[in-house]
Amino acid sequence: MSLIELPPSLGKSYWDSKKKGTLPAGSEVEKALQALERKHGAVDWKLFDARWAEAAKSADELDKALAERSARWRSAVLPLKAEAAAAAAAAQKIAKGAAKPLLDAIRLIGDDAKDFGKAIDKFPDELQAAADKARRTLGKGGEESGSEEEDEGGLADPKRLLQMLQRCKRDPALQVHYAFSPGEGKAVEPALVMSPRVAGKALFARLAKETGVKLGAFGLASIDGTVLRLSVDKPYSGLAKKVRVPVKACGFRISQVLIVGPDGASLESDAEEEQEGGEQEQQQATGDHAMAAWTAAREQAIAALKEVAKEIAAARDPEAAKAVMQIQAVMKNLSAEPREPARLKELVQYLDQDDVVLDVSEFATDIRTPLLKALAGLQAG
Questions:
Q1: How far apart (Å, rounded) are the C-alpha atoms in residues 260 and 220?
Q2: What's the number of domains the chain is made of?
Q3: Is residue 2 part of a domain?
Q4: What stretches of the chain show up as alpha helix (H) in DSSP?
Q5: Which of 118, 131, 180, 201 could cross-link 66 (Cys pair, CB 3.0–4.6 Å)?
Q6: What is the three-class DSSP state of 30?
């Protein structure tokens, strides 16, 4: 059984079993439904088995498995949404003057095509949720030493720290092990390392060996909203303030560092000190979040547009080359970092009025709604 079932009405075989003449024989809608049914059946749905994430033995293996399935979703599953929309559009074209049985069939195809498209859009989130659940299980690895992958680029690699912080932010229920070193003067910078698998004590031993600094702290870390929560077995004076140095250095923003004891009681917080930073930093953070939202929406839109262009090119229609050029023009018009109010206004008008954007959003993937939402955030900032 596939994880995204094809509604019966979106397959030609379903209508073949119905009363003769429900759908016009040899019509475009029949051809579209037949093509959709064939392409859906060609997808290797076993790759998306419900237990795929549980088979991973390490975080690296899990990341690779998720990347493989995300790529397959983009190449094989996402195009099914455009196929379903095309079938619904073909059905709508024969609605004029149709009798009730045909009108009911057309309505059913249209409704099921929309639901099918929504299921496809939700699929990446379901893949990520399965990966995060498996990652929490891997994170209960106790004192295991983990693979040598964590030594690539140095244990305290800022890029790895940023990835772990972002992962924790996506999943507030996720707790990972951490180790912190305060550094030593200008020679050794403060360092914070995190791992879902290697226990804090083992992490701290490795960090101490790498930095040569024996002081520090370790425990469990999690993120709730913009609050970084660190548990410690023993109080460590000034930990909340000191941890901010490597966190800021890796480019991650938080509003507060909260230190708690083994019983969960609050020991230390830098919330008051951070508030003294004034409104300017808060406004900057708001603007950065808004731009990050635009970047994400833009990347998703461009990925979707590339898939649509690929499908159009594969159809070898006489008008395909022109359509692909129009889609490429849309991608170029989506500025990477629009900041000027005038440019933001231009983009909103463009997304509201451009025929290609409207057609892609209606019949393939809705790129318009998330882009407009991200632009509203930039304008508000």
A1: 10
A2: 3
A3: no
A4: 12-16, 28-42, 59-72, 78-93, 100-138, 158-170, 200-211, 239-249, 271-275, 279-315, 320-333, 341-353, 355-363, 368-380
A5: 131
A6: helix
205, 199 in Cβ contact below 8 A? no
Q: Are residues 133 and 224 in the same domain?
A: no
Question: Residue 220 pairs with which residues in a beta bridge?
Answer: 177
Q: Which two tokens stand for residue 214?
A: 């024996």
Quick check: pTM over 0.70?
Answer: no
Are residues 129 and 180 located together in one domain of the fold?
Answer: no
DSSP type of residue 78: H
Distance in Å from the first CA to the final CA of the chain = 46
Question: Which range marks the domain in which residue 203 is found?
Answer: 148-275
Map residue 4 onto helix, strand or coil: coil
256-260 and 266-269 strand pairing: antiparallel
The pLDDT tens digits for 217-232 are 998 999 988 899 999 8
Q: Give percent of the chain with pLDDT exceeding 70.
A: 89
Give the max Cα distance, the chain.
Answer: 84
The amino acid that residue 170 corresponds to is R
pLDDT band at 276 (very low <50, low <70, confident <90, very high): very low
Band (39; pLDDT cuts 50, 70, 90): very high
The answer for residues whose C-beta is within 8 angstroms of residue 203's C-beta and 6 or more apart is 177, 178, 179, 193, 194, 195, 218
CA distances from residue 50 to 1, 2, 134, 161 in whole angstroms, order as listed: 10, 10, 12, 30
Q: Enumerate residues 6+ apart whose C-beta is below 8 A from 143.
A: 199, 201, 202
Nearest to 241 by CA among 251, 256, 225: 256
Residues 268, 285 within the same domain: no
Q: Is 36 exposed, middle or buried (0-12, 13-18, 19+ CB in 10 A)?
A: buried
Q: Report the half-sphere exposure of 276 (CA within 13 A, side-chain side).
A: 3
Q: Which residues contact 226 (CB under 8 A, 6 or more apart)?
A: 253, 254, 255, 256
**DSSP notation for 84-130:** HHHHHHHHHHT-TT--HHHHHHHHHHHHHHHHHHHHHHHHHHHHHHH
3 in a structural domain: no
